[in-house]
Structure prediction request, 163 residues.
Amino acid sequence: MHGSRKLTWLGLTPEPERELPYAVARLRSQVAGAGPGGGTDGEAEERRRIERLILHGSRQTWLRYLGEVTQLVVDAAVQVVPADPETALVVGEVVLSHHQLLIGLPGDAYQQAAADRALLSSAVRRLRERLPPGRSTTADPSRPDPSHLELSRPEPSREAGTP
Prediction:
């Protein structure tokens, strides 16, 4: 039982590994001043990083990564960095939802994520206020649900002469 307990953090939800690569790459790009999107290179790099953490990391390294991502969201929310509030909100909602689900796991991960949860709750609230009227990244703003994300990935460019 003890060995399997160490892997319980992997059983939460697929949203972080599914939604974060594109959105975090886009947010990192905005924070770095590289423009509005992360591009496919940034997304692929973020996807590889998350994959390495999932396959070879631990609960601690995963929470450290999410802490780094939390800081990006907080910086965007307080406008320390210029960033699209919708992108930051998507990232914030996914990570906040993840941190809220930690309560169901054995161990102290929920307590460890308490400070990030508080920061994210405040940041998500601020980011929602900055969205244009009628825009929302979730069906119900009081309950983060990353399956309703409105971010769209750019269409892949086609080479001339290919169908």
User: Anything to note?
Assistant: The chain has one domain: 13-132. The CA atoms of residues 74 and 119 lie 7 Å apart. The two ends are 54 Å apart (CA to CA). The chain has seven helices and no strands.
